[in-house]
Each structure stands twice: as structure tokens, then as C-alpha cells.
Amino acid sequence: MSRDSSPTEALNELTEKTIRGGASRLIAQAVNFLVRFGSIMVLARLLGPSEFGLVGMVTALTGILGLFRDFGLSAATVQRVTVSEEQASTLFWINVAVGGALTILTVAMAPAVAAFYHEPRLFWITVVLGSAFLFGSAGVQHSARLQRDMRFTALAVINTVSLLAGTAASIVMAKAGYGYWALVTMAVTIPLITTIGLWVSDLWLPGLPRRRIGLTSLMRFGGAVTLNSIVVYVAYNFEKVLLGRYWGAAAIGMYGRAYQLVSIPTDNLNSAVGEVAFSALSRVQDDPQRVRNYFLKGYSLILGLTIPCTLICALFASDLIAIFLGPKWRDVVPIFRLLAPTILAFALINPTGWLLFSLGKVGRSLKIAFVIAPLVITGYVLGLPFGPKGVALGYSSAMILWIVPHLIWSVHGTSISFKDIVRVLHRPILSGIVACLAAAVFLLLCGPHMAPLFRLALGLLIFSSIYICLLWYVMGEKALYMDVLRRMLGRVVSSNNVSAPTEIENVF
User: Fold this and answer.
1) N- to C-terminal Cα separation, the chain
2) pLDDT (tens digit per residue) in 39-55
3) DSSP characters for 391-455?
4) CA 386, CA 383: separation in Å to the nearest integer?
5) Residue range 382-426, pLDDT digits in tens
6) Whole-structure pTM value
7) What is the rounded CA–CA span in Å between residue 13 and residue 10?
């Protein structure tokens, strides 16, 4: 943005950067989506549930350490309106120090991890996985700098290349017969390649750390973000620890594959839209009307894409597992179907994190996390005696019960009302229900006579055709999607028209 640009021009430029950045991230996430599904399909046929379970046992415990890797300082850097060179350099060295400490801590806890699960092979798995913390921490501030500059295309390319490199290395090792070490290699390769790409893209060399440069507020914000992440992580991952401890590697291997498949749509979309939305909302945090418009646009897009994912996963669970994992994973089907409602739950509640963090309301987000954690843990602890299926049912039930209280609490006192949320939500929900009923009729009448791949392809065609027609034409969402598409393709309003409201801003 030029220094002499008017506020309207500056905001219009931010809108363009946001949508173009969102386009880059969505394209990259679409590629990542295909790569991740492809890797699951290949690795599921090369490795067994126990091999996935061994790595899952370790990552369920060490994953919480990963939340300390950036100590919330990347979010603090992005949320701040201005960050000095001295502050950025000092934050970089703090991140590296934390990453090194986490690597040492992971190595030190390796004997305890092996003893906890009564599985000696976990010792060296834990030791090697610890190196990922150091690799990842060296790129935290470079990533935050790219986010602040809205350089999402560069971030998208880096993430895609690192995922491809990690996936290729894992598949090569699995085919060579290295078993679970193929999965360990992927977990270490991805952060290493990502950090290399970030350094090459940003070309920023941090200076020496300094004292007394105004880091107190940044550290306080980052600490609150980290604590929030820890509480949420424990809530959403402790069930894997319990399954591994009481039901063994095979049980957590099956549950973990179902959980991974269910998480891919939410993770990809939230990563694609959330990263851009957080940056954009942070830039307009002092303009309530802009915050409302930006948030509701992103929220509508997320729901429009994730609600059909939820229904498709529940309806076509058997075909999806048969195609993506293969026949030896048949027992994953009921777990996968029971976890499907969590796609909707996370799609509804995750975006409120963009809002609260961008407005600096990390305290409220932390309080919400402290309520979510015991609720979700209670749900799957009650289901634990019944194995992976009981845990999946308890998890989904707790998440669905929490949706409405979460949304009301999150938007209270902001420029967004719960009524706004309902208005955005009802359109894709109704469209999805009708499309789901039509697809269910198809499965009932014609499905039993078709091969899984053909049945899935035809069912998805029926579902998506009806869903898009209803959402765009009956519910009136076409203007929103077409305006976003035009901006993605570069057909934007001319500079002579910058003061005129766009279709996308009039939708709400």
C-alpha cells in the first residue's frame, strides 16, 4: 500500500490481497488434499494398523510439545500492527531456543514413552521425532513475516513442496521395507523442507537478540495463545493416548486413520482460509463493520464447503474406506462414520478463533478452551470401555453439544451476532440435507448393484449437483461465490470504482 493512498483505497487493496491470498491457499490446499489422500491410499496398502499405531502413540504424547515450538509468537507477530526489526530478531532467537529445548526434552523422555506403552521400539521413534522441533522452530518468524506481508502464494508453494517431499520420502522407504520408519521420515522431512523454503523465500537474516525492546505484550499474547493451544490439544488428542495405553497399537492405528481422514477437509480448509482471514482481520481490527463483513464472508465459504464434506463422509463411509484404505481396513468404517459429525463441529467453531485472536481477545478464547477440554474428555472417557467406536461416539456427541454455547460465547460483545451466524448457517445446512436425502435414495435403489468406485463417483455427482443448485440459486449464494471467483481470476473493479460497495460486501 502506498503512503498517500486513501483509507478506502487501502481497504480495497487489502480486500484484493485477502481474496488473492485465499485463492492461492485454496489451490495449494486442494493439491495438499490430493497429496495427503494419495499418501494415505498408498501407505495404507504398504503398512499395517500396528505400524501407524506405533508412530501415533508417540505423536499423541509429543504433539503437545509442538505447541511450544513457536510459543504463540507467530500469531503475536501477525496480530501486531507494527513489529520492529529488533523485536522480530529477538523473537526468532527465542523460537530457536525453545525448539532446541524441546528436542532435548523429547530425547530425555524417550525411555518414559517406551515404558508407558510397554513398547521398546518407541524409544528410537521418539528420539528421531524430537529433531522436528528444532527444524520447525527456525522458520517460525520467517513464516510470520510472509503472513504479515500477505505473501500467501509463497507460503502455499512452500507448504506444497514440503508435503510432496515428505510424502515421496515416506513412500520410498515404505516400499523398501522400512515399516514405521517411513512415517517417522515424513514427520521429520516436512518441517525441514518447510524451513529451508521459508528462508529462501524471505531472505531475512535475523540480527542479534536485544533486551528492553517492548516484547512484554507480545510474549503475554503468545503465552495466552500457547496455553489455549495446549488445553485444546489435550482435549482433542488425549483419547489417542488412552486408546494406545488400554487397547494397543492396532486400535489406535484404526482410530488414527479414521481420525486423519475425517480431519483432512477441516484442516485443509481452515488452514487455507484461516491463515488469510486472521491476517486480514488483524489489519482491520479497529473497524467493526469491516471485521463483520470479512469474518462472515470467510465463515460462509468455510461452511459452504465443509457441510457437504460432513454429509458425504457419513453417507459414503464404506466406499471411501474401501477406496482410500483398502479391504484390510474394513473395521475403520463405523469409526469413520461416527467421527464424521466432528467435521461440522470444527467447521462451525474453529473460525471463531480467527475472530477472537485478531481482536486480541485471547483471554476469552482461553476460558472457552478450559470449558471444552473437560466436556470432550468426559465424552470419550465414557466411551473408552467400548473401544475405538465408543470413543468416536463420545467425542462426536460432546462436540455437537458444545456448538451453540461456543458460538454464543465467542461472538458476544463483537460486531457479529448469533443471528448473523444462524443466517449464514441455515443456507448450506438446508441445501446439504436435501442433497443428502437425494443421494441416500440413490444408494438405496441403485447402490447395491454397483462397484464402490463407480457408486461413489455417481453419488458424489448427484449430491454436489443438487447441493450447488440449491445453495447458489434457491438460497441466493451465487453472488458471493461468483464475486470471489472473479477476484481470484483478477477481474476486479477498476480503481475508478473503489468507493462502490462490491457484491461480496452486500451479501450480509
Assistant:
1) 27
2) 878 888 888 888 888 88
3) HHHHHHHHHHHHHHHHHHHHHTTSS--HHHHHHHHHHHHHHHHHHHHHHHHHHHHTGGGS-HHHH
4) 6
5) 999 999 999 999 999 999 999 999 999 999 989 899 999 999 888
6) 0.65
7) 5
